[in-house]
Amino acid sequence: MREIVLDTETTGFDPETGDRIVEIGAVELMGHVATGRTYHQYINPERTMPEEAFQVHGLGDEFLRDKPKFAEIGQAFLDFIGDAKLVIHNAAFDIKFLNAELKWMNLPQIPWEQAIDTLAIAKKRFPGSPASLDALCRRFNIDNSSRTLHGALLDSEILAEVYLELIGGRQPDFALSAQPERRADQPHVEWSPKPRPRPLPSRLSEQESAAHAEFVGKLGDDALWRQL
């Protein structure tokens, strides 16, 4: 199962009033394991950066001036995410901005059902508790000391760890690898499989056995099957 953990940075809170995306960061997961493949892009918002937004992510006008516009990277972004589930903290915010930018380019919109909202998951699991990314890092003992400012790629990498904890641990294996508990007075005995008292009967029919023998006969005297 392919998933994309995603984050954006913007100039403000509402694309309908002129705010734009200035950074996209994304991390690819396959079967809940990071593949090492990422997407990261700074974007020229074609407007000045409000001071309040600059204080959040530190991306200023001078830095963003020579970066590509969203119209230049929109299709490449869509190609990267494909139809994978998008793991986003407060998904409504990021999807709103992404779909606004895609709409202005006449590109396909991202369906709301494609997103997995980790904020909603956290609020359901820990009702009444803080559910910000920093708060969840504290809860799960995830190191976020490098997060002095918001950054889309760094936040995506941190969110990937938080997401795996939210869905059941960094190695979601249905507890198959857990060690069974034993009492203090119970002697420790190493378990090992024992041979079956009776071998399992063959499931091959006579017709299948004959067909296999005929196949092996055509392989020659040195065939591996003749040594088994």
Features:
228 residues, alpha/beta, 5-stranded mixed β-sheet, 8 helices, 5 strands
Describe it for me?
The chain is an alpha/beta fold and 228 residues long. The chain is 35% helix and 16% strand. Strand 4 (85-88), helix 4 and strand 5 form a beta-alpha-beta unit. The radius of gyration is 27 Å and the shape is elongated.
Strand order of the biggest β-sheet:
3-2-1-4-5
Helix/strand structural class: alpha/beta
What is the rounded Rg?
27 Å
How many individual helices? 8
How much helical structure, as a percent, in the residues?
25-40%
User: What spatial form do the alpha-carbon principal axes imply?
Assistant: elongated
The number of strands is 5
Could you spell the SSE succession in H and E letters?
EEEHHHEHEHHHH
Outline the biggest β-sheet: 5 strands, mixed
Q: Overall mean pLDDT score?
A: 86
Report strand %: 15-25%
> Cα distance, first to last residue?
38 Å
Low-confidence stretches: 172-181
